[in-house]
Amino acid sequence: MNSGTQPAAPHVPPQALTPPLEEIARAFRSEPFVPHTLLRGGHAQTIVAALRLSRDKSLRGERRLFEARLAEVEPGARVLLKCRWQEERLKAPTLLLIHGLEGSSDSLYILGTARKAFAAGFNVVCMNMRNCGGTEHLTPTLYHSGMTADIHRIINDELAGREGLREIYVAGFSMSGNMVLRLAGEYAREAPRALAGLCAVSPSIDLSGCADRIERRENTVYRWSFLRSLRRRVRAKRRQHPALYDTRGLWRVRTLRQFDGRYTAPQGGYRDAADYYARASSLPFIARIQRPTLIIHASDDPIIPAEPFRDPSIAGNPEVLLVLTEHGGHVGFIAGESGGKDRHWAENRVVEFCRMLSRSAEGLRRRGAKQ
What we know:
Strand order of the largest sheet: 1-2-4-3-5-6-7-8
Largest sheet: 8 strands, mixed
Radius of gyration: 20 Å
Number of helices: 12
């Protein structure tokens, strides 16, 4: 570890990092996020990134390139994986991508990151959380932000175990970003040997704060978008498992906190929404992370507050590289200048982070083989 804290760029706060992460931080300092001139606000970044029809058209063909696979995460519960393999998959690093709340493996940020990662030489596995991607029939239960055991089983049993993959990276977005960070903290020094690094983009590290933020009047459009989708999901689950889901008065559920209190918390074994938020948030776990980790967040994210990212436990962990930009919105980060790459800056940083870590690991392996 470096003995001193390195100088900061506006988007990379002062941090004392391990040598591999400091090398990556230097590269990131030279490529700050500069938002598109028409998309300087957090709402504009968030909405345009989610609704870009031209990007949906360009990525539509990517869906046909993936192999579908079902993986059991607990008895009676399976999730859908979409996999794209390099010709020599055992020799290639692998990137596991996980979507956010009410997303799927078809979410634009998942497909965009997957395309970049595969072009960079990675196997790509896109995980649908329980019920997502049209898989309501594969499990009786809902998914939630504390369900890190599912991700562990995919890493340890499916990818490292069944496939024999030796170098695995994981990237989560929004809700799954919180899950990835929490899982890394749960692992501490006991992470699977194959797990080489983790990334979290716009992660909801303080769930209670996020629930409060989305209740603001200016966030009504996001709140109702989530609630409409969650209500549809509960109605679909009731048709399959009527004894488990009571939809009477569902129309009265008008906030995410109310939804979590009525459905998510009891399904997940929590007392109530407050207990769920306290126990499933990743912020208390970040100090325990012992594998190279990247966190990207924008201060103008309209859904997830920036204050928790200034907690000293984050900058104080030399295994965690925090990139905190002024602009970018929620899983937006549409840049003005592409520098020869596409304009999706955070996706590029995720792939670059994993690529640089993989290159560093390969160098260490080669030096070890010569000794």
